[in-house]
Structure formats: structure tokens, C-alpha cells
Design goal:
single chain; alpha+beta; Outer membrane efflux proteins (OEP); 2 domains; six-stranded antiparallel beta sheet; three-stranded mixed beta sheet; 9 strands; about 55% helix
Length: about 625
């Protein structure tokens, strides 16, 4: 019974562990910021949750490491790079960044806000209280803080600037207690006016991509003062206004106003192209490093074989010295050859270790800092082979592929479209500024009537906030205004210069795009020639190596027959080493030339069966596994 419970507990624990591991893995695969959640009224003002960076490697390494050795095929090396390469990981952030930039562009540009709360608190509505009566007739005097209001004074952003496309709501409330000395007490009937005020204002503004905006504003002010001459005290004054403005010349047009949104959409559409460019560079680096490592292993083996042969030659020469068949100088010559072979092996081993460091850094997110890779030797499982024929398509066909797939050409074409769209702003900025303005408002006033010198307020204004709001809604006291605003810059040199500079830069971009296309033809042709030359060099190096080996074998036989010298044998042995090194270098150069052609035609991802979707996710579907027989 106890054993059954333990097994059940173990099964439940394992299930929870697997679930947690899957959840963590899913979380690690996500780099997208998580939008805030909650009620609509508070959700826009909460921060987005951006996941931390992923600094750990995938679990693919564990499947390929045995006894301190990491066994890799070329496809496994590419898969590790797609999952772990830090440059590719950096590029993955471009897509969510561009999505948020598009959203930012769709919100439009910033506009100046309404006056601050302090200025609102220091003013009174025209006709409200003693000071309001003075303001209504233009009798503004003394240091009483009264500020003359100018119609549409907040409209300051004109020209080719995108309006704020997100509706903006502002509200301010101010409370004040003021004491205002009166040099002339004829109207106020007091030497000091003491006021208690409350000022509330609210504004909703909505901009339009066509180049205009609509503003709805509400203002309410409460006033209670000690002036005996105030026949309506305390009082409530409210107003409601709707105003609209629109650009007629500079800043007018849907395409102009939405140019930043259009450019942001272009950038988002280009994100795949940008990511492909990074993938192309990284995959080419991985392939060159991998096959370079294959060549380094072959070179080390060749150098080790040479050292073994040199060691046997030293032993043989020493034996002959004991028999009196050779001179002491011959033994010294043989030992010198052995020392040089040992030095060459040491240099090749160092090169191999450096190449392993390069490849580890390409396929690992944290490089040599990963404990799983420290002290691990990479064993490449693929070899380099040269096919009997190259079977290359004609150059015109390769050029067609390059024009369709080269990310740099696609990027330049998109950049030209972006510049053309962006130049709409400076072209429109040459025009004068011309705006049409219209406002309709309604005011209301209510309060407690008082009898002053036999006079009291009109009964229509008797009441509080409800009376004043009712007057506003009934449009009892409407005000309508319309106007036009224009501004012309004499000579207009700045706008003309900006427009001309942008157009000249655009012409330069067009020429650079044409030059890049011409360069692609040169690059592809050179890549084809490089493959042909690499094959020819390899075939010549292979023939030379075979010839040198035959000469070395013949010279050894002549030395055994006493017809040659130790010096001649060592010289031919060095020629054999040089021939082997040249053959290996030509072999690696041929493989790199193939990679270079794939890179120049823009087909390296397709040729290596790389899925763009898997690369974006950072999780390759190809499963890595070790072969049944492992090389030692």
C-alpha cells in the first residue's frame, strides 16, 4: 500500500515537473512584450511586461556530447546557431520593436496642451463678480492677476506635423483664496476683495490624419467674494465650446499626415528581409568555420603523419650511423626535419583550437562561458568532397536569382520607397501656412441674488450650478466665431533648402541602388570564377601532391640503395608537406567558394534547408542525434 502511494506521488511529481518545464520552455521562447490587462480605463496606463533576455543555450548540446567531445554535422552546427547565436537573437527583437514603432506612429505626433492649472486659477469668467464685471468692460487695472483670454491661443502646431491621432482628455481643478486690495473702491465698496474660487476645466481633443483637429472643452468656475456691490454672490459660471481647425496648404492631406505610419508599415514589412540578412551572414560564418575546422583536422592528421615519418627517418638514420653507412651530419639533418615537423604540428594544432573557439562562439549564446562547452572538443562528422562537375547554372540565371533574393538589393528598394514617402513632408513644407478656424460656445451663469442699493440680479440667473448648466444646454448665450490664420515666410529659404537637400539625397540613393545592382553582377560572376579557379587549383594541388609522394618514395629507395643523401630526402619530404598543405587549402577554398556563391545569389538559406519561421522562433524542428559509429 505504501509502495503504491509512493509511486502515485512520484508520478504526480513527474507530471508537475514536466508541466512546469514545458511552461518554462514556452516562456523562454517568447520575447514579445505582454500587453497589460485590466479594465479599459486603467489598461492603457499600465506598463507592458517585457520578458528578460534569454542568455541560456538550448538543450540540443546535451544530445551530441559524449566523453568530452561534441559531434557535429554541418546541419547540426547550423541548427545550434539558429537556436543560440546571439546576433540572431538580437535580430529577433527587431520585429516586436517595429510593431511597437508602428503603433507609436499610428498615435500621431504631440500637440501643445491647454493652459496650466495655475493660470486658470488666477482668472475669473467675464461678468462673474466685481473683477469679472471690470474685465467685461475692459477695465483691467492693478495687480489683480486677471489674464486676457485670446481666442484659439492654444493652436501652435501647424505645417507638416502629424496631428495627435489618439484622443486626448485633460482635466484640471484649482482652488484659491485671494485677497486683492482696491485703490478705487467705487464699484467694490470695499478696500480689500476677499475671494474663494474653484475652477474646473476639461478638454477632449481629437486629431485627424488629414491635417485638422476638433476640440471640445468645458469650463466651470465658482466664486464667493466679500464685495457688498456684487448682486449675484456666490455664483457659478460654466461654458461649453467646440472648436475645429484644419490646414488648407501646409500640413494638408491624408497621404502627408499618414507618411510616418506608411514608413512604419514599410519597416515592419522589411523585418523579414532584415532578419534574412542576419541569417545569411551567420550561416555563411558557421559553414566557413565548420569546413575550416574539417580542413584543420585533416591538416593536423597530415602533420602528425609527417612527424611520424620524420621520427622513423631519424631512427633509421641513427641506425645507419651506428653501422657507419652515414655521416653524423645526416643524423643532424634528419633531426632538424623532425623538429620542423613537430613545430608545424604545433602550429596546426593551435589553428585548430582557435577555429574551435570561433565555431563555439557562433553556435552558443554565451560562448566559452557555457560549462557544457568548456573543455569540449568539436568533432566534425561531415567531410569536404569535390563533385566530379560543378553543374553551375548560367550566369544570367544566377543573376536573376540574386536580383530576387539578395537582401541588400531588396533593402535598397524599400529604402527608396521610404525616402520618397518621407520627402512628402519637406515638399509640403515649402507651402505657406493657412488654417481655417471655427468655434461655437455657450455660456451660463447662476447664483444667489442679493439686493444692493435697491437693485438685484435678474431672476433668470437665480440658482446654482444646475441653472448655469441648463442655460448652456439650452444655448441661451451662444457665441460663434470663425477665422483664418495665415503665415508666409519671406524668401522661404529654409524650406526650399530642406526640400532640395532631401531630393538630392534621394537622387544619390537612386544612383547607389543602381551601383549596388551592378556590383551584384560583378560579385556573382566573380563567385562563379572563384569556384572554377578553386577546382583548378585543387586538381593541380592534388596532382602535385601525388607526384611529390612518388618522388619521395623513389628517393627513399635510392637512399636505401646508397644512391641518394639524407639532405635530398629531407628536402623532398618538405616538398611533400607543402604539397599536402596546398591540397588541403585548395579543398577548403573550394568549399568556401561554394558558400560564397550561395551567399551572393541569396540562396544560402534555401540551399541549406533553413526555415525562416523556425529561425524566428529560435527552435529548429530538425532533431540532432549521434550516428551509430563515432569517429575517434
Amino acid at each position: 500500500m505504501m509502495g503504491l502511494r509512493l509511486r502515485q506521488l512520484a508520478a504526480a511529481t513527474a507530471c508537475c515537473f514536466v508541466t512546469l518545464t514545458q511552461a518554462q520552455a514556452q516562456q523562454l521562447l517568447n520575447i514579445e512584450p505582454v500587453r497589460p490587462s485590466g479594465p479599459f480605463v486603467v489598461r492603457p496606463y499600465k506598463e507592458a511586461d517585457v520578458p528578460p533576455v534569454r542568455l541560456g543555450n538550448s538543450g540540443r548540446f546535451a544530445n551530441l556530447i559524449r566523453a568530452g567531445k561534441l559531434y557535429l554535422t554541418a546541419q547540426d552546427a547550423i541548427a545550434h546557431a539558429l537556436e543560440n547565436n546571439i546576433d540572431i537573437e538580437v535580430s529577433r527583437y527587431n520585429l516586436p520593436t517595429l510593431e511597437w514603432r508602428l503603433e507609436r506612429a499610428q498615435a500621431g505626433g504631440a500637440l501643445p496642451g491647454v493652459p496650466s492649472a495655475s493660470s486658470q486659477a488666477s482668472g475669473v469668467t467675464s461678468g462673474q463678480g466685481v473683477l469679472g464685471s471690470q474685465q467685461a468692460v475692459g477695465a483691467v487695472g492693478g495687480n489683480n492677476g486677471i489674464q486676457r483670454q485670446t481666442s484659439n491661443a492654444t493652436i501652435a502646431q501647424i505645417g507638416p506635423v502629424t496631428q495627435t491621432l489618439d484622443a486626448t482628455f485633460q482635466e484640471s481643478s484649482a482652488f484659491a483664496h485671494r485677497s486683492l486690495p482696491q485703490a478705487n473702491a467705487t464699484q467694490s465698496v470695499t478696500n480689500v476683495i476677499v475671494q474663494n474660487t474653484r475652477a474646473h476645466s476639461a478638454t477632449i481633443q481629437q486629431g485627424f490624419v488629414s491635417g485638422g483637429s476638433v476640440t471640445v472643452s468645458y469650463s466651470g468656475r465658482y466664486l464667493n467674494e466679500n464685495a457688498p456691490s456684487n448682486i449675484l454672490n456666490p455664483s457659478e459660471a460654466v461654458s461649453l465650446a467646440i472648436s475645429a481647425q484644419h490646414n488648407l496648404l501646409q500640413g494638408r492631406g491624408i497621404r502627408l499626415g499618414s507618411r510616418n505610419i506608411t514608413i512604419a508599415k514599410m519597416n515592419l514589412a522589411m523585418s523579414d528581409n532584415t532578419f534574412r540578412a542576419q541569417l545569411t551572414r551567420t550561416v555563411a560564418q558557421v559553414l566557413n568555420a565548420y569546413y575550416g575546422l574539417v580542413g584543420d583536422f585533416m591538416d593536423v592528421e597530415a602533420k602528425r603523419s609527417t612527424l611520424d615519418a620524420a621520427t622513423r627517418f631519424v631512427n633509421e638514420t641513427s641506425r645507419r650511423l651506428e653501422l657507419g653507412a652515414v655521416a653524423t651530419l645526416d643524423v643532424t639533418t634528419a633531426r632538424n626535419q623532425s623538429a620542423q615537423a613537430r613545430l608545424a604540428l604545433s602550429n596546426s594544432t593551435a589553428t585548430l583550437e582557435q577555429r574551435q573557439i570561433t565555431l563555439k562562439n557562433l553556435i552558443s549564446r554565451n560562448g566559452l562561458a557555457d560549462p557544457a562547452l568548456q573543455g569540449v572538443t568539436i568533432i566534425p562528422l561531415d567531410s569536404i568532397s569535390i563533385p566530379p562537375t560543378d553543374d553551375l547554372p548560367p550566369v544570367p540565371e544566377l543573376l536573376t536569382k540574386a536580383y530576387q533574393n539578395r537582401t541588400d538589393l531588396l533593402a535598397r528598394a524599400d529604402s527608396l520607397k521610404q525616402t520618397e514617402e518621407s520627402n512628402l513632408g519637406t515638399a509640403n513644407g515649402v507651402l505657406p501656412s493657412l488654417q481655417v478656424l471655427a468655434t461655437r460656445s455657450s455660456a451660463g451663469l447662476g447664483g444667489t441674488p442679493r439686493v444692493v442699493r435697491g437693485t438685484t440680479a435678474d431672476p433668470y440667473f437665480k440658482g446654482g450650478l444646475g441653472v448655469s448648466v441648463g442655460q448652456v444646454l439650452r444655448q441661451n448665450f451662444p457665441t460663434e466665431s470663425a477665422g483664418i490664420f495665415g503665415r508666409v515666410t519671406i524668401n522661404n529659404r529654409q524650406a526650399l533648402a530642406d526640400q532640395s537637400i532631401d531630393e538630392l539625397n534621394f537622387r544619390q540613393q537612386q544612383l547607389n541602388a543602381a551601383r549596388s545592382k551592378n556590383q551584384v553582377a560583378v560579385d556573382v560572376t566573380n563567385a562563379v570564377v572563384a569556384i572554377q579557379q578553386a577546382r583548378a587549383r585543387y586538381e593541380a594541388a592534388e596532382a602535385n601532391r601525388k607526384l611529390q609522394e612518388q618522388l619521395y618514395s623513389a628517393e627513399e629507395k635510392r637512399l636505401a640503395a646508397g644512391e641518394s643523401t639524407t639532405y635530398t630526402v629531407t628536402q623532398i619530404s618538405r616538398d611533400v608537406d607543402v604539397a599536402r598543405s596546398s591540397e588541403l587549402a585548395a579543398l577548403v577554398a573550394y568549399r568556401n567558394a561554394r558558400t560564397n556563391l550561395e551567399q551572393n545569389t541569396g540562396t544560402i538559406l534555401e540551399d541549406n534547408k533553413i526555415s525562416l519561421a523556425e529561425a524566428k522562433d529560435g527552435q529548429v524542428g530538425h532533431a540532432s542525434s549521434l550516428p551509430a559509429t563515432l569517429p575517434q
